[in-house]
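Here comes an entry:

___
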Amino acid sequence: MKEQISQLIQTALVHLQSQHAWGERPKEIQITHTKSPEHGDFSCNIAMILAKQQHTNPREMAQLIIDALDKTPLIKKIEIAGPGFINFFVNASTLTDVIAEILREKERYGFNPNRQNYKINVEYVSCNPTGPLHVGHGRNAATGGSITNLLKTIGFKVHREYYVNDAGRQMAILATSVWLRYLALMGAEFSFPSNGYKGDYIVDIAQNLKEKIGDSYVKPIAAVFAEVPPDFNEEAQTGDKEAHIDALITNTQKLLGQAQYDVVFELTLDAILDDIRNDLAEFGVEFDEWFSERELLRSGTQQRVLDKLKALGHCYEEDGAIWFRATDFGDEKDRVLQRKNGQFTYFANDVSYHVFKYERGVDKMIDVFGADHHGYVPRMQAALKALGYSSHLGDILEVILVQFAILYRGDKRVQMSTRSGSFVTLRELRQEVGNDAARFFYVMRKADQHLDFDLELAKSESNDNPVYYIQYAHARICSVFRQLTEQQLNYDEAVGLNALTQLDTPYEQALLRSLNSYKDLLERAALAYEPHRLAQYLRDLAHQFHSYYNAQRFILENGGEKMQARLCLIAAVKQVISQGLHILGVSVPERM
């Protein structure tokens, strides 16, 4: 319907342009669903845009456009509202067309085949494999998973990717922490470094290491701590925890040698990655690729990127380091790519990784990161712009920043720290509130807004719990069709579709308006990377259905066309709820 109204306006503008010798007309006409029935079904702001261009009154421009519109049975009435909005009231028969379309297309409703040739790479979660996923990671997983589902639903080809940070200092601290716990299990006595990883999972991995290699990796504890600077002493405010752990890493690698150190490293990495994979899979979050940082480092991509940026004139040398002229491309300051000692920076690795993605053939890259990566966005976009990368889908790189979820038990906020081990894992959260509540609650609010996760609400079976409320609407519709069978009555879709004009109650009209806005909602939520829009839509749709359910009967004593029309309507509502919940990664129960 939006496309038809847009075409009506375009035709009118062509006519007006020939009459008034206006300049180039807008290529796109913005048609939106109105928020309330008294303002019609659709609204357009084109009159205000053109009035500004032509230096005339917007309401007069609106009337000019209305007078030029072709007559059509689709439109019942057109009104001018406010400063110059054109509001369209469509005929009731037009609103009901959506039911047949939904029932015909089912799970492919909203799919646009013209997008199938566009490939979008979406990277999400990508947390360091240094411990189990905590509740903060869960919001990133739910958001990224819902974004990929939205994009696939409207037709894009999506590649889901997890970047495994399996190189660098944090991984060395992790491997060293496991080996120290192994030595403790073998009887060694020492103070565990304050900057090491301390969770129970480290002890579990160390126990697996012990079972695999026995005492063959035991070294004298004196040698382990030889020439290691004192650790930080909180009471005395002396020592250096960073220098302490770095010296322990050096001694660990020296005492074990490369072969033994690699065994500890790989066993640790595999254990944590396997746990992350299983946790995410149980959460309904899957990936097409787990890309290793070490593979990137072995590829030599960093040097290729540096050479290309140099050749393009976007680099300079200062104090022995190689700098990228990021300020030429909108960043607040220039960035170091290669340090004086020849080592590439984290920034160089990040740029190289995105080059690696781009060279695999993508039309757009989307990164879903924690909000603490806000400084990452302009520097990465600057680098890709300098390299000449572009896309038919807007910016080649979009970064979605996800604020942390804050978990509350009563009035008490739970603190989280991966190294100390005092954190609530995603698995623990899922076991307490269930996958469905976790997935839905994580995306209820816009990703860049803080989320206070209410455990008691998430576990409640009441209308105040939005996921329960939506699932209950689906289950209620299923119960209607079960009752139909129990009463030995038939659902005749063909008869119902031919009698949709009988859907004339306010409850039915409200549901029809919502169903008509669903495809547009899917499109806007997907292209804006905002699954919270879909969550809110489903909640509103469920509310409209429950109101309808409480006010009207669906199975009528005399059966007939009206009953079949109502059954078609609620079947369409059921299909939309089912599709929407699946997009958000939430189950769709038929009984509750």
The chain has a mean pLDDT of 92.
